Amino acid sequence: MLQLRNARSPHARRPHSRRVIGRALLATALLTVVAAVPAAAAAPQAPVAAAPVRSEAGTPAYQQVSHFYGAYIDAVTAKGGGKLATALRTFYLTPRLRTQLAAWEKRNHANGVLRAQNVPLAFRVTPGDSGAGHTWSKVRLTWSNGKHPTYSYLTVRSDLQTGKISGIDG
């Protein structure tokens, strides 16, 4: 699925800002629900059979990666979106990956999630192989439009048990 940024609709005045606001609201609602879960978990409850831990049950891992990259790109593009970008990293990425990204960013003076200093125009996520409790997705970032667009590719690893992104290579 190719998702373009900055695409103009002839019938809308500011489609990009609506999309940013919509994704920001979705991310905020998601983070609010996640914050409420620990309080509900602390309340005494009857024993329940153990179920596999999975984020957005029934949603393939590559869709989780797609949700993250869509919201993250919108957040880093939006004015004042730094706090939202950090919150998205906290929610979608494992603590170990966040530490690795901080070290990578310090060495390379670039955004570790995008592996670049600027923001792509579009992205596409495709599913890959799974094994040993992980699944891999391929993320294609589009950097230019026209007859011969420029792309870069990332390999993103997700943990099947938690649904969190645990590795980004590119």
Detailed description of the structure:
This protein is α+β, with helices and mostly antiparallel strands. 41% of the residues lie in helices and 21% in strands. The protein is built from four helices and five strands, in the order βααααββββ. The chain has helices at residues 15-42, 61-77, 82-92, 95-108, and strands at residues 3-4, 122-131, 134-142, 151-159, 165-169. Strand 2 (122-131) and strand 3 (134-142) form a beta hairpin. The model is unreliable at 6-15 and 33-58 (pLDDT under 50).
Cα gyration radius (Å): 17 Å
Let me know the average pLDDT: 78
Q: Give the number of helices.
A: 4
- Biggest beta sheet summary: 5 strands, antiparallel
Question: Which percent range fits the helix content?
Answer: 40-55%
Task: Trace the largest sheet across and list its strands.
Answer: 1-2-3-4-5
Short description:
With 170 residues, this protein is an alpha+beta fold. It is built from 4 helices and 5 strands; from the N terminus they run E-H-H-H-H-E-E-E-E.
